[in-house]
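Morning, I've got a small favour to ask if you have a moment. I owe you a coffee for this, so here goes:
>
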Amino acid sequence: MDIKELLDGEGTRQVIQELFPQLGEASEIGGDPLCHKDNVVDMYPFPRIPYSFSNIPFIQQAETGSCRYLLIGCNRKQASRDILSLNGLFRTARDCCTVFPRLQIEETQIHFSTKDCAGVPGGFTFLQCAPFTPTLRACEYPVILHYAAEYAWGDLFYRQDGSIGRADLYCRLKRTTFQMLCLSSSTGGTNVNPQLYIKCITAVSSYKSAKRKILYQA
């Protein structure tokens, strides 16, 4: 179902507020939490970003004023594809570092709702936008996908051409948190499908001091 159809349907507000209880709080900040028109204009210079920002629902943070854009409809499908594509990197990480957990994200494990994310590292999955710098230059990464799944969470940074240029990935095994920095092997551009490669893997264990240990570095 298209995102506009979902937002225009009867009972839409009730459905979204059941999935995202925090929307009730957001409505007190001002504006309609189911539509943030400012960022529709902001994203026009980036037509190749693979998400629709037309009438996209959001949660506005009272402390900072920043918005977390919620993923439903076609946006959720796109996010799921990109998150599941990380499984190849997790398999590669095992070849680079044998102590890295055997990790496989399933689509049913991705947390898209605030309703079920209590106690989950990383919370829930949403989009953030930073289309321009304070000097009004186009940002290198205008859109960030923050994802949260069972035992795994992180951020995917989308470049102006819509490709993923960077990924900060985290996962937990018992009391050890692993961090993996992945970068694109390409500078992007037209007709380019860049591949992410693992730049560094680190680990922090709460068994001892919280010192970061480098397990792999390219």
